[in-house]
Amino acid sequence: MSDTLKNVRTVSRILGWVCLIGVVFEICLVPLIWHVDGWIDTSASQMTISIEELRALSGWQKYAVMASMMLPTLVMAYGLWRLRKMFLSFTENHIFQPAPIAHLKAFSVALMAQTLIKPISGALTSVLATITRPEGERVLSIGLSNAEVSTLFLGGLLLVIAWVLGEATRIEDENRSFV
């Protein structure tokens, strides 16, 4: 086995574990923001309402807001899970095969979907969190940053690369059948 393939396997094994940690973190992020003091300080720039307002919610409103906040994180958790599966395929020397390419496609679509869902989720969160307030005090907040635009382009780039790899694999299989 070449040194490059050994490096691919080693780095892929490490990145597979990093993806698994990322999946767990994504799933736990929103509950941590709600229930652990200090976590919100690092996430406050992405919140559409204050943590004090969130913690003051109760009943259906609290769970609806939490669910709306979980939408983008669950999409990203799925994407990271598929990316992990791609890396695990690489550790078994399945490089130019349909399965890892399909995992890369799924990750890129999840990355773009999460990026598009995030501002919608933020808007939904602000509406749900303030819906019981009197008229004039209700909030609809939506935003899109340069980071989200860059992430959309990155997701699109990864999707195109996955399509190109899939086509190359198909052509290689077709050429092998002629020989």
UniProtKB/TrEMBL annotation:
Keywords of the record: Membrane, Transmembrane, Transmembrane helix
InterPro entries: DUF2975
Name of one Pfam family that matches: DUF2975
Residues spanning the membrane: 14-34, 63-83, 104-129, 149-166
Protein name in UniProt: DUF2975 domain-containing protein
